[in-house]
Design goal:
Order of helices and strands: HHHHHHHHH
Structural class: mainly alpha
Distance between the termini: 56 Å
Shape: globular
Largest sheet: none
Length: about 240
């Protein structure tokens, strides 16, 4: 199928809320072309974010139900067994989705990336999806993907600081998600606050140099950084 047709069908699938089909179409496009332009990269991100987002939410819900049933006591009840079966099923779905995208990034997209913005974008996605994997894994399996996420965030952050301005949405996105990783995955409030605060302050100092469009793109991420920072600093007090 031609690239234009795949992109059009992916956008159509997005409008219909059929994000699993959207992900499959952009996956095929990436495999065919080995590289994606900025619009196609955003389609890739949106598609997989919707797919894995639904799965992660389902996993959190069933985990809460499992914990509630376990707290009732009485051993392995029918309801508890049912919740655990569902939890295992959903964990496999998260695993499959994350590994599908990670394989595409590691084997196709990252080896062909040349521009700093493109490489940082892919490294951020790589780190994010290792982070999502860590949510459904335990033990040494979890430790391994957490370490992979940490390394990918560090590489993305390093390139972003060298090659992209503080107000660049992709650079800000790396700082936002890396700070969430520090807070939620590593349980390091100090590192989360430091990362978010530094990114926010550096960008705010440069805002008056941006065009209206650039300001709007950056402002969305800056608002999220500010909200997280306010919450996390409140928790530290």
């Amino acid at each position: 199928m031609e690239a234009d047709s795949l992109v059009y069908r992916a956008k159509l699938a997005d409008q219909m809320g059929r994000h699993k089909e959207m992900a499959q179409l952009i996956y095929q496009l990436a495999q065919n072309n080995k590289s994606l332009n900025i619009d196609e990269r955003n389609l890739l991100s949106v598609a997989y974010k919707h797919v894995v987002g639904s799965q992660r939410n389902a996993w959190r819900v069933v985990s809460a139900i499992e914990a509630k049933e376990a707290a009732r006591g009485g051993g392995e009840t029918r309801k508890l067994a049912c919740a655990r079966t569902y939890k295992e099923k959903i964990a496999k779905e998260v695993n499959d989705t994350c590994n599908e995208l990670l394989g595409l990034l590691n084997e196709e997209l990252l080896p062909q990336s040349r521009q700093a913005e493109e490489r940082v974008f892919y490294l951020k996605l790589k780190a994010d999806y290792y982070r999502y994997l860590s949510e459904v894994l335990t033990g040494t399996d979890r430790d391994e993907v957490v370490e992979s996420a940490l390394l990918a965030y560090k590489e993305a952050d390093s390139i972003a600081h060298k090659e992209l301005p503080p107000t660049h949405p992709v650079r800000l996105g790396v700082s936002l998600n890396q700070s969430v990783f520090f807070f939620e995955t590593l349980n390091s409030s100090d590192r989360a606050c430091e990362t978010a605060r530094t990114a926010y302050n550096l960008a705010v100092d440069e805002l008056n140099r941006l065009s209206e469009k650039e300001f709007q793109d950056s402002a969305v991420v800056l608002q999220l950084l500010r909200e997280n920072l306010k919450q996390w600093e409140g928790d530290l007090q």
